[in-house]
Design goal:
131 residues, extended
């Protein structure tokens, strides 16, 4: 099998194939990444809180933006970690460490954004309930 045949084998030729690969990637992240479980539980709790507190359409947009960004960044972080591990052959390299640390840092930054969004939306509603 030559290089061209190998490229054709893995090239997604249809929308269905592209979606299948993407969904497989999401399912792999859910099954194999510990933090994805935490993000999924947190997302579910945020949606439940949004329903309980009756957030506005604009607030829903910010909540869903936060949820989807955190999940997307976590998937990208996992992909970067896998590629770095593959490229470094699982041997320590300062460049590999830096790449993995920066990817994890990106998840932390977007998670802080999500936390701030949640606080801006929910703290006043909780405050109203208490007082």
């Amino acid at each position: 099998m030559d290089l061209q045949d190998n490229k054709r084998k893995w090239k997604n030729r249809t929308l269905t194939a592209s979606l299948e690969f993407a969904l497989t990637g999401i399912m792999t992240a859910i099954k194999e990444e510990r933090n994805m479980h935490k993000h999924a539980v947190t997302a579910l709790l945020v949606v439940i809180a949004g329903l309980i507190f009756g957030v506005s359409a604009t607030e829903w947009l910010f909540l869903f933006l936060s949820i989807f960004l955190v999940i997307a960044f976590e998937i990208m972080n996992s992909a970067i970690e896998n590629v770095v591990d593959l490229a470094s052959d699982y041997h320590f390299s300062m460049l590999a460490k830096n790449a993995k640390d920066m990817a994890a840092g990106a998840v932390l930054v977007i998670s802080v954004f999500a936390l701030l969004v949640g606080m801006i939306i929910f703290l006043p509603k909780i405050w109203q309930l208490i007082f």
